[in-house]
Specification:
The protein is an alpha/beta fold. It has helices at about 15-20, 35-40, 55, 70-80, 100-115, 130-135, 150-155, 165-180, 195-200, 225, 245-260, and strands at about 25-30, 45-50, 85-90, 120, 140-145, 185-190, 205-210, 220. Helix 2 (about 35-40) crosses helix 4 (about 70-80), helix 5 (about 100-115) packs across helix 6 and helix 6 (about 130-135) packs parallel to helix 8 (about 165-180). It binds 3-methyl-2-oxobutanoic acid. 3-methyl-2-oxobutanoic acid binds near residues 30, 50 and 220. 3-methyl-2-oxobutanoic acid binds near residues 90, 220 and 222.
């Protein structure tokens, strides 16, 4: 089936995001599906099809469950559901780390098959050749430093970064490396507040914070976390702006009771032999 992709020229460009350095904060959220992208598109500057989709929608324990095909399918859905936001799709673990050639091939597939504006990948100094090669191929890249969920197994868990002098210096090296490699922006995740604020002052590309600092040039949250849909542990840095867990479980409870009592479907939800105006 042909995919109907909206034209990209009315979208917020990665260049427009880059120019927002030290300006009005950049509003970002993750999105994985068509209906949610439709709801968010008017309110955000950037939608990230994060590899968190593997955990949030597919029930994997870590983001390592994401595949390129999974990211492309969700990227297509988010592109169909949005017309304005800059859309960035994550490169999942195992699709870019081996070499610059592998990174460019994966990024090219994501761009060609979704029509999104940019890709994101995790890593700093260790990923500069990958970032530089993707950018040289004409594909904008968003970096991701600090806590890197694709490395949690290697790191032995979700560990906040920047708590030792050594770690602070490494984070700054990572931020500068990502900037110098040509990224248009960088996510800073799970990092000591003062360190994220300092990096934001020292680099010329926008920083997007998640569990980082209010001084970052923008903020991002995982959509399911911020609307209260997360059923497992909600991280400290999340603010729940709605409680959809309660809304959904109350709706399901009421529906179940009405089905069992034969209250649903009622007269307004069934069809008579003669066509009426409100028939579908
Ligand atoms: O995958 C994701 O959702 C992310 C954000 C948390 C930045 O990388």
């Amino acid at each position: 089936m042909a995919t109907e992709l909206p034209t990209t020229d009315i979208r917020i460009s990665t260049e427009a995001i880059r120019r927002r350095k030290a300006g009005t904060p950049i509003v970002c959220l993750t999105a994985y599906t068509y209906p949610v992208a439709r709801l968010l598109d008017d309110h955000v500057d950037l939608l990230l099809v994060g590899d968190s989709v593997a955990m949030v929608l597919h029930g994997y324990k870590t983001t390592l469950g994401a595949s390129l095909e999974m990211m492309i399918a969700h990227g297509q859905a988010v592109m169909r559901g949005s017309a304005r936001a800059c859309v960035v799709v994550d490169l999942p673990a195992g699709t870019y780390e081996a070499s610059a050639t592998q990174a460019v091939a994966s990024a090219r597939r994501v761009i060609d098959e979704t029509g999104c504006q940019a890709v994101k990948l995790e890593g700093g100094v260790d990923m500069t050749s990958q970032i530089a090669a993707i950018v040289a191929a004409g594909i904008p890249v968003m970096g991701h430093i600090g806590l890197q969920p694709q490395s949690v197994e290697k790191d032995g868990g979700y560990k906040i970064k920047g708590r030792t002098e050594e770690a602070v210096a490494a984070l700054l090296r990572d931020a500068l490396a990502v900037e110098n490699a040509g990224a248009f922006s960088v996510v800073i995740e799970g990092t000591v507040e003062a360190v994220a604020a300092d990096i934001t002052r020292r680099i010329a590309i926008p920083t997007i914070g998640i569990g980082a600092s209010g001084d970052c040039d923008g903020q991002i949250l995982v959509i399911d976390d911020m609307v209260g849909l997360t059923v497992d542990r909600v991280p400290k840095f999340v603010k729940e702006y709605a409680d959809l867990r309660s809304v959904i479980s109350h709706a399901a409870e009421t529906y179940a009771a009405e089905v069992r009592s034969r209250t649903f479907p009622g007269p307004g939800h069934v069809f008579s032999a003669t066509k009426s105006r409100d028939d579908a």
